[in-house]
Amino acid sequence: MNSKGKDSDNTENNGVIDAVAKQRKIQQETDAMDSQRQQQSQNEGAVQAGARVQPAPPFPALHLQKPGIESELSPRPQFMAPDYKGSGKLQDMVAIVTGGDSGIGRAVAVLYAREGADVAIVYLNEHDDAEETRRCIEKEGRRCLLLPGDVRDSAFCKDAVKQTVDTFGKLDVLVNNAAFQEHAMALEEITDEHFDLTMKTNLYGYFYMAKAALPHMRSGSSIINSGSETGIFGHKMLLDYSMTKGGIHSFTKALATNVISRGIRVNAVAPGPVWTPLNPADQPVGQVPQFGGSTDMKRPAQPEELSPAYVFLASPVCAGYITGVVLPVMGGVTGSA
Q1: pTM more than 0.85
Q2: 310 an active-site residue?
Q3: What is the span of the domain harbouring residue 296?
Q4: What is the pLDDT of residues 155-192, one digit of tens each?
């Protein structure tokens, strides 16, 4: 090979060496930045972007007995939304909130009252929690009706609606929120009894309540269903629950189309993890301390951070042109499951 060929080989080799060196230099710079970011992430706390600082992991290692009593939960869920000022968005309307004794339902009921609505609370048997919710509603200057019973029973759902209309004279808003959730590590572990209870509470209950409510609703009324991020992304330990929440999202869209000609709107809220009795009454006790920590905000929502979305969707002045939507309130843009 002539000297020109050798020079060409040397140039190519130098080019390869230079490329490798640059790749490794960039890699080292990126690794250093990654290490720095990881350290910063470990030192950063939960994101607090709301009106007040909310509880964040680690939480106590709790495991509540079902159906879950809110007064036994520590720290107590934040539901009063003291910075939220009512402005008559639901003035003199009447609402039914299932699962309204605690958690998201309680927070929704309180803000509905603050916006001027009378509220009927449907709940299973958590009487003390329900009484606390009633006191909070009455403190807002509105009336409250407590209706204990099982939404799996269509006759009870009809009677709950009837009692509400008989007491308050009408029905403007139905919030379907009652739910059953119990994890399972494998599909084979979900018994027929477990599956049946989840389906009938989460799907039949929504169907029965909507069917009972619709004959009493008029133009301007609305139905709001509590969905879940699990209905969008799924959850490996909540197979049956995720199935029902996906069904609720579809039911919301289908029913919205079905009743739009009557001027009745149907929407859903899809929360991410929320600090309510539902989760510590389900999750393995070892997972509770870090509950919600995998969200972008590194903490679960408090019920008072969900309730304004339900006000928005219920209010004709806010959401009169919105129907058939599933509104995600997940502490980020992706699921935490």
Answers
A1: no
A2: no
A3: 89-329
A4: 999 999 999 999 999 999 999 999 988 888 899 999 99
